[in-house]
Design brief:
Shape: globular
Radius of gyration: 21 Å
Distance between the termini: 57 Å
Number of strands: 0
Order of helices and strands: HHHHHHHHHHHHHHHHHHH
Oligomer: single chain
Structural class: mainly alpha
Length: 381
């Protein structure tokens, strides 16, 4: 318990510092964990209580992912979702997997690294758009749909990694069974859910908390991944009043997620688990691969490399979902690699999104001096 108190106090100070500096808080939490844990001062160790709170952070994070999957909006904009998402997926998964495999990771480890390498931080991307006042730019919608596509891709990755050696047909049948129960309960209990959410006492908060934990527990009992089922619960609840559920679940997510990040850092052992060369290559490629996919997306959708640079600047940072994959499936070398990649890309992405105007100005200047004929440049803007 003392470890959690120390960790939370340090994270509070770091959160204030990150807000003051306009930098993402996630890498600060991970660094705090590394410094406090066995890779640093050894002041705090992970125990059953911290593991429980960390798991709560992961569960509520995934519940929020589900709340963000508005099926009706996705179907209305499926062309935008698919076009940008497929480019992003193919470029980053391929580069991430090939790089990790050639650097000595096993096939499964390379797949986990590639998935973490591919998935940008939704929280960082959306926050950067808001804080840098970019929600009205034309590329912002593409960035948001990219995040939605990545969330869906993450669900598929979780399903593949969770299946393991199980019979795939039986595994799929159990998942469909739980999904059917969730859908039936939400569809026929919609009026009940709305009546709960409309109350102004503690019942909506208590109901949301219990619903998330009960779904995770039921999934574990049936032997299906609780991560997927909690996402599904969020998607089902999104058909009623997602904003209300977000409001009631946010306090749990915000507090537990801080514990999740800091204790992930505490468990990291950087000494000897993986070479500095491997980590450095992965970090550099993580930045370059998003640049490639961003520029390709900008050229395809807008006919403009400048638009691609704007997309890149706001999607460099990896974060919560990459860490979730490391916690759920990563070996010590994989976890250490992903942790450093998240820290590096978070800081690079923060500065890139904040100063993207300067980067674009420099790029435009070089393009005018060395670029294609003027009529082609006009067609791209």
């Amino acid at each position: 318990m003392e470890g959690i108190i120390i960790a939370l106090f340090v994270c509070l100070v770091l959160a204030l510092a990150s807000k003051y500096l306009s930098l993402p808080a996630i890498p600060f939490y991970i660094i705090a964990g590394v410094v406090l844990g066995k890779a640093g001062l050894g002041l705090v160790v992970s125990d059953q209580i911290s593991s429980f709170f960390s798991e709560m952070g992961l569960i509520f994070l995934l519940f929020f992912v589900g709340l963000g999957l508005r099926i009706d909006k996705i179907s209305e904009n499926r062309s935008a979702v698919l076009t940008s998402g497929i480019i992003d997926l193919n470029v980053n998964m391929l580069i991430g997997f090939v790089a990790a495999y050639l650097l000595g990771f096993s096939f499964i480890e390379a797949l986990i690294v590639a998935a973490a390498f591919y998935i940008s931080s939704t929280a960082m991307a959306v926050t950067s758009l808001i804080e840098n006042r970019k929600l009205m730019m034309r590329e912002s919608e593409t960035i948001i749909w990219l995040m939605v596509f990545e969330d869906i891709a993450m669900i598929i990755v979780l399903a593949l990694l969770s299946a393991g050696d199980q019979n795939l047909l039986f595994f799929a049948a159990k998942i469909i069974f739980v999904l059917t129960i969730l859908y039936v309960l939400a569809h026929y209990g919609k009026e009940f859910l709305v009546s709960i959410l409309d109350r102004e006492d503690e019942l909506p908060v208590l109901f949301t908390f219990v619903a998330v934990l009960a779904t995770a527990g039921f999934a574990m009992f049936l032997g299906v991944p609780e991560t997927m089922m909690v996402i599904a619960l969020g998607a089902v609840f999104a058909t009623t009043d997602p904003d209300a559920f977000e409001q009631h679940a946010r306090p749990f997510k915000d507090v537990f997620l801080v514990i999740f990040f800091v204790f992930f850092g505490i468990t990291i052992n950087l000494s000897g688990s993986v070479s500095l060369f491997v980590i450095s290559v992965i970090c550099v490629l993580a930045i370059v691969s998003k640049l490639i996919s961003g520029v390709l997306t900008g050229l395809y959708l807008y006919g403009s490399a400048s638009s691609g640079l704007e997309i890149w600047a706001n999607t460099i940072g990896r974060g919560e979902f990459s860490i979730a994959l490391a916690v759920l499936y990563g070996s010590p070398p994989v976890a250490a690699t992903i942790a450093v990649m998240v820290i590096v890309t978070s800081f690079v992405g923060s500065f890139a999104s904040k100063y993207s105007g300067t980067l674009l100005h420099g790029f435009s200047g070089r393009s005018r001096h060395h670029g294609p004929p003027p009529h082609r440049m006009r067609a791209g803007h």
